[in-house]
Amino acid sequence: MNRSLRTILTLGALAAAGAAGFWAGQAGMNGSALPWHPSVEAPVAATGPVIYFRDPDGRPAYSAVPARTADGRAYVAVRASEDVSFEPRAGGQAGAPVAGGEPRRIVFYRNPMGLPDTSPVPKKDSMGMDYIPVYAGEDTDSGTVTVPSGRLQRTGVRSEPAETREIQRQVRVPGSVQLDERRISVVATRTDAFVQEVANVTTGDRVTRGQPLLKLYSPEIAAAGALYVTELASGAGTAGGARQRLENLGVPADTIAELERTRRVPLLFDWRAPRSGVVLERNAIDGMKTTAGAVLFRLADTSQVWVIADVPEYDMAAVRIGAAAVVRPRGLAGRTFEGRIALIYPQVARDTRTTRVRIELANPDGLLLPDMYAEVVIASGSGSTVVAVAESAVIDSGTRQVVIIDRGEGKFEPREVRTGARGGGYVEIREGLAADERVVVSANFLIDAESNLKAALRAMTSGTTP
């Protein structure tokens, strides 16, 4: 500021002071207040300790210690009673004194956005926002944070009560369709025989129970059949040794019944399908000789199949027998099949660190084919209810978990908890929280940052004298 401009401002100030003195004198002589000013009060002397020094010309320049301007003028001392704060305080409007009329001492100023930055004198942040004064004795509770209602709305803080619920999460693992081992049958003879003729059945065909698969000649079966017919003719009944021999040779029951009805031994015997299903393997050829136990056909009933899923070792604790599972075959886009876990295999694969689980599925239409890949979604959970909160409510540092308790009226308290299972957007709280306590689920990291900042500031200022 140049000398001429300063002279003009000084003269203006003196003129204003003179006018004020004239009208004050007139009011004193008349003994009444001026008609346009109800009263003229004597200026109140500043009280309290000096908390900072400001520029004498009103510029936004401050100092914690006595200082001078560039032209050598001293900064003006500002005492505690002269400081003004626009931040609402407990117990009244902005800037209101505490009970008893004594002004509160400002200890420092903190960043308005909760950043770990403080100042011993007033200042502005990079966005032009004023730093917020922190008074002596404010927030005596080391854990409680008070946030004005206006700021709550601006930051989007939202809270919900903790509630009891069952924690379920989905375990997604790969799987493949396999045949039900209990529904596979082998067609074979228990003695040497000759295949005379094979039915028009090939691998992949579907057959029904009792359908003829081949005609064969077996000297041993023919001899047992002749002995059985002889016993029937002699009236020995059906419980003789010849019938038992036929059964031991694996002759189908309907073939034995045919012997009983016709009382004659055929040259060739029909070998029939023991179950309905799909032909997985055909080894029989016209005119071939087969030995005892040789596999002629392999059949499988596909009306029910298994899905074998590989569950990682770290997910096994969440999977139990009877849990519901949804199977989505990759070859059947948009189709889903529902089943339940019937068995958890008692072994962990050494190479993949996974354990196989078996899901049984009905397959009446035969759409699920063996070795088909599928995505398996297993619903896991303990089946019991626990205290749980939304996952967003838990602030996890890796070594500790914290939730912010909403105590109402803008007061919040960080509390350490011990968590458990997670799933469905919720996390189990095993210790540190009771049902129906309200916790912050949105913008809680802002309150946590302010709580940590206040704790750090208390540690920094613990040695100061109020």
Q: CATH topology of the domain at 190-293, which one?
A: OB fold (Dihydrolipoamide Acetyltransferase, E2P)
* Anisotropy-based shape: rod-shaped
Count of helical stretches = 6
Count the E strands: 29
Outline the low-pLDDT stretches. Answer: 1-41, 84-99, 461-466
| Rg over C-alpha atoms, rounded to the nearest angstrom | 47 Å
What separation lies between the terminal Cα atoms?
A: 38 Å
CATH hierarchy, class of the domain at 190-293:
Mainly Beta
What proportion strand?
Answer: 35-45%
Q: Residue-averaged pLDDT, rounded?
A: 79
The chain-level structural class is alpha+beta
SSE order and pairing:
Elements: H1 3-30, E1 50-54, E2 62-63, E3 76-79, E4 106-110, E5 118-119, E6 132-135, E7 145-146, H2 149-155, E8 158-161, E9 163-166, E10 169-179, E11 184-188, E12 193-198, E13 206-207, E14 212-217, H3 219-233, H4 241-248, H5 253-262, E15 269-272, E16 277-282, E17 289-290, E18 295-300, E19 304-312, E20 324-329, E21 337-348, E22 354-362, E23 373-380, E24 385-390, E25 395-396, E26 401-408, E27 411-423, E28 426-431, E29 438-442, H6 444-461
Antiparallel strand pairs: 1-2, 1-3, 4-5, 4-6, 7-27, 8-29, 9-24, 10-19, 10-23, 11-18, 12-14, 12-17, 13-16, 14-15, 16-18, 19-22, 20-21, 20-23, 21-22, 24-28, 25-26, 26-27, 27-28
Helix pairs in contact: 3-4
InterPro entries: Beta-barrel_RND_2 (IPR058792), BSH_CusB (IPR058790), CzcB_C (IPR058649), MFP_Cation_Efflux (IPR051909), RND_pump_MFP (IPR006143)
GO molecular function, one term: transmembrane transporter activity
Domain CusB-like beta-barrel: 304-380
